[in-house]
Specification:
By secondary structure, this protein is mainly alpha-helical. It is built from six helices and no strands. The chain has one domain (about 1-130). It has helices at about 1-25, 25-40, 40-55, 65-75, 85-95, 115-130. About 10% of the residues are buried.
C-alpha cells in the first residue's frame, strides 16, 4: 500500500511539473506551431491566431499537441484553399475543432438549376430517346 502511495505521489509530481512547464510558455512560443504551419500566408496566420485567442477566451486554451493535431486535421481533411474559411467558421461558432464548410467550397462552381422546359426535355429524352437523333 505504501508503494502505491509513492507511485501516486510521483504521478502527481509529474503532472505538476508538466503543468508548470506549460505555464512558463509565452504567447510567442504557443504561436510558433501555427506560424510554422502558415508559413508566409498572412491570412492563414491571422485566422489561426484568432482561433487561438477564441479558445483562450473560452478558457479552453490549446496545448502544443492540440495545435499540431489541428494543423494535421487541416492538412489531411481539407484543401488548402478552404483552410482560412474553415478556421474562420470554427472561430465564429466557437467550435473546438474544424468542420467542413457550411457553404460550398471556394473553388467549386455551382450548377444552376434546370428550367422547367429543360427538365421536361431531359426527362422526355431519357424516356423516349432524343428526337433529334
Amino acid at each position: 500500500m505504501n508503494k502505491n502511495m509513492e507511485v501516486d505521489k510521483n504521478t502527481n509530481m509529474d503532472y505538476s511539473a508538466a503543468g508548470a512547464a506549460s505555464e512558463g510558455a509565452t504567447q510567442q512560443d504557443r504561436q510558433d506551431i501555427f506560424a510554422e504551419f502558415a508559413g508566409t500566408d498572412s491570412a492563414l496566420s491571422q485566422a489561426l491566431q484568432d482561433y487561438d485567442t477564441m479558445r483562450q477566451e473560452k478558457h479552453k486554451a490549446l496545448t502544443d499537441t492540440m495545435r499540431r493535431s489541428l494543423c494535421e486535421q487541416l492538412n489531411g481533411e481539407f484543401q488548402p484553399c478552404e483552410w482560412v474559411a474553415i478556421i474562420k467558421q470554427a472561430t465564429l461558432h466557437g467550435w473546438m475543432k474544424f468542420y467542413a464548410l457550411d457553404e460550398p467550397k471556394p473553388q467549386q462552381s455551382q450548377q444552376r438549376p434546370l428550367t422547367a422546359e429543360e427538365e421536361y426535355t431531359r426527362l422526355f429524352d431519357e424516356t423516349f430517346g432524343s428526337i433529334t437523333q
